[in-house]
Amino acid sequence: MNKEKLKLKIIYVATIAAMIVVLTLFAGFFAPNDPYATSAEGIRMAPSFSYPFGTDNLGRCVFSRVLYGGRTTIGMTFLLVAIAFVIGTFVGMICGYFGGWLDRFLMRIADVTLAFPQMVIAIAVAGILGGGLWGVLLALGITMWVSFARLARSHTYSLKSQPYISAAILSGKSDFYILTKHILPNILAPLLTNALTQIGVTMIGISGLSFLGIGVQAPMAEWGQMIAEARAYIQIAPWAVLFPALAIAITIIVFNYLGDLIMDYREL
Amino acid sequence: MKPVLKRIFELILILLILSFFTFLLMYLAPGDAAEKRLSSQGVAITKEVLDAERERLGLLKPFFVRYGEWLFGVCRGDFGMSFKDDMPVAGKLWSGLSNTLILAGASMFLSILISLPLAIVSAFKKDKAVDHVIKLFSFIGNSLPNFLISVLFMYLFCIKINAFPIIATGSLQGLLLPTLSLAIPISGRFIRQMRQEFLLQMSEDYVIGMKNRGMKKRYIVKNVLYNSSGHILNIIALQIGTLMGGSVVIETIFRWPGIGELVMDSITARDYPVIMGFVLIMGVIYVLINQLVDVAMKRLDPRIASAGRNGLGSDDFLTSDKKGGAHE
């Protein structure tokens, strides 16, 4: 495939991804109804003009809840990936640049973290902390920084032997200056690509924990949690399950596809 | 002899770290175990009763004494008593584990059965229509969370068509939907990664040589398969963790009486000894499988022996980085 065509494709998919983010980020503007307003007479109504996705067991508007739920799911995913990105990149750069015992120590921790099954740990941690936003972030974050740290470390390490880094060292620039001005901009591309590929996985993790009831807690809307809740009456009101399911599937597919395209682009 | 000793030493060390963190996690867990236990048994809580219970459970001893006692017990197969019903935890865990192994084993078998032929076809017919179709399906499979697949399956097959029982009661028919729900996302990942691996092999000189000499396709496939077997094993091993986490979700949905369902019930009941046992058993299985695969891979492909795989036992972090454990 030629590069120009791929670039155009990336722009299209990125636009769709941006639209999803905007739609959920400004859920308050786009949602036709209050996502938390219950109504006794309007329970489990089929999709109609005023309730595009129908209503759930408590008479809440499913469309509004999907938008607000997206804000929770996507917002938490971005937050978590961003935190892992910052911590991982920092650790990886320090390790790759300075080396020595600190490098060996931190990378040993990274190795040990990878030696355990991630999702098992996440379930145990989130379950014991009793769910909630911070429980989820901690449960998934414990292992997530590692991939960033390893990537940042190996790229920093190979950059270090470049002549322009040596030149910077010889001209008396401080380590901090070299790391932020010379190394960080040059290792950013692979790290950002990694961040993009982590979005889908993280989203599956967050909604999975919420589905199990140890993630985001009701009444706060979250896609996995909405599916878990509406699963009990799927026979009567399938729309209360199918629309959040569709939302989560589309979002993950779009972000994964974007990640794939950008990886292809970088390889060309 | 020395590398073997080193490996065993590392294995023991990592299992110790695992047990320590498991214990620490429960130690730091919010809530008082004695109080939880009494209230779940319906005993009126007074100060004296509470203190007596704490004494009986050994909660008043120092941290390291408790850790040592727990670890010693675990080594002998004693995981303590359940807070919920005072039954030994070990029995519950083992019976759950055997059911989980059936489910996980079936899913893994099915995933390999689906993905290996498809990956071969996809790689050998690169950029043909078949390849695009397989790529599309594996991409979608990879993007769907397993809880979503199982809920949709339940809706379609159990409610709309009424072909399967909703609750998997251990029968073969009940096993099919949970197995499929677990196998689909994993197959998606397998096909993508195996295809990549086959393509890498096919760009090597020996394959090009065979093609030029006009060798039959199936000999080429055979050679490619043989030479990539080490990496295929690695690809499979990397999904064991996904399988473990996934089985918790799937077992809860289909009420499959495995260790995952047990742990979710225990999380709701705050039954800490069961959760500790779960984390420890899963961790030990995971670590052991990874070590075994590591050894097997080096046997299958001596070229990797010096490079090392991701995770434990790799001395050179740079080379192991490329294989990206947490990446995909």
CATH superfamily of chain A: MetI-like
User: Could you spell the SSE succession of chain A in H and E letters?
Assistant: HHHHHHHHHH
Mean pLDDT across residues of chain B: 81
CATH topology heading of chain A: MetI-like fold
**CATH homology superfamily of the largest domain in chain B:** MetI-like
Number of domains of chain A: 1
Low-confidence sequence ranges of chain B: 308-328
Note the total helix count of chain A.
Answer: 10
- CATH architectural group of chain A: Orthogonal Bundle
Distance between the termini of chain A: 9 Å
Total strand segments of chain A: 0
The CATH level-2 architecture of the largest domain in chain B is identified as: Orthogonal Bundle
Strand content of chain A: under 5%
Structural class of chain B: mainly alpha
Q: Please state the overall shape of chain A, judged from the principal axes of the Cα atoms.
A: elongated
Spans of chain A of 5+ residues with little confidence (pLDDT < 50)? none
Total beta strand runs of chain B? 0
- Under CATH at level 1, the class of the largest domain in chain B stands as Mainly Alpha
Report on this structure.
- Chain A has one domain: MetI-like (MetI-like fold), CATH 1.10.3720.
- Chain A is mostly helical and 268 residues long.
- In chain A, helix 3 packs parallel to helix 6 and helix 3 runs antiparallel to helix 8.
- Chain A starts with a helix and ends with a helix.
- In chain A, 46% of the residues are buried.
- Chain A is elongated and about 75 Å long.
- The mean pLDDT of chain A is 87.
- Chain A is 75% helix and 0% strand.
- Chain B is mostly helical.
- Chain B has two domains: 61 residues, no CATH class; 232 residues, MetI-like fold (Orthogonal Bundle), CATH 1.10.3720.
- In chain B, 75% of the residues lie in helices and 0% in strands.
- In chain B, helix 5 runs parallel beside helix 13 and helix 12 runs antiparallel to helix 13.
- Chain B starts with a helix and ends in a 7-residue tail after the last helix.
- The interface between A and B is large, with 56 and 56 residues.
